[in-house]
Specification:
This protein is an alpha+beta fold. The protein is built from four helices and eight strands, in the order βαβαββββββαα.
């Protein structure tokens, strides 16, 4: 704890620390009224942005082939897409209801924030592309500096053998600290998306 804020620290949290923090937050409620909304988005409700929510959708092709899809599916299930040096998690199983604690470094501070996996599925991808799709969504809990939800998706399109990665997020500040530092928070969100895509593309090349 720093300056009276739980979840702030100077040192990187250990894996055991993240597991403990996730367990402590397991019973907390979601801190916004839109749990599960990211599963079918886009589109989002027209008035969501008017209510102060920031909407981010980043989607791109990361490789080709069912073998690459399989490798990236394993990476997603083991949270490699979030293992970026300055960001990490307690790496739970991708199952609905499991608690998540995300640690991230901003400037010289590490933050720990609680979330919950609210849906997770691997399924046949619908027409016209066919193929396979893996997706999961995690929603912020009471005590998180932000309110919102984030969906990660991976797709293999049988029609052209392409593999796609997607991050879909809606969020807004949930604390005075987050509101005060929100421009920096937004930069961190964009940095994470950019580096997560780079990580997945690197893993795709290695899987060929």
């Amino acid at each position: 704890m720093i300056w009276g804020f739980r979840g702030l620290g100077l040192g990187r949290p250990s894996f055991e620390n993240l597991q403990q923090a996730a367990a402590e937050a397991e019973g907390r409620p979601v801190n916004h009224p839109y749990e599960g909304l990211s599963r079918e988005a886009p589109p989002f409700a027209d008035d969501l942005r008017k209510r102060g929510w920031q909407l981010d959708i980043r989607r791109g092709q990361v490789g080709h082939g069912k073998q690459v899809y399989g490798a990236l599916s394993r990476a997603l299930k083991t949270w490699s897409h979030m293992d970026l040096g300055w960001c990490d998690t307690n790496r739970p199983m991708l199952e609905s209801g499991n608690p998540v604690c995300i640690a991230a470094k901003t400037l010289f501070l590490w933050t720990r924030n609680p979330l919950r996996i609210v849906y997770a599925a691997e399924e046949q991808y619908p027409k016209p592309f066919k193929g396979r799709r893996l997706l999961y969504g995690q929603s912020t809990l009471l005590g998180h500096q932000l309110a919102g939800e984030e969906r990660f998706g991976l797709e293999w399109h049988a029609a052209d053998d392409s593999v796609w990665y997607e991050i879909c997020t809606f969020s807004r500040p949930a604390s005075a600290l987050a509101a005060l530092t929100y421009p920096l928070v937004r930069k961190q969100q964009h940095r994470f998306q950019q580096q997560s895509f780079k990580k997945m593309r690197t893993l795709a090349i290695a899987a060929k």
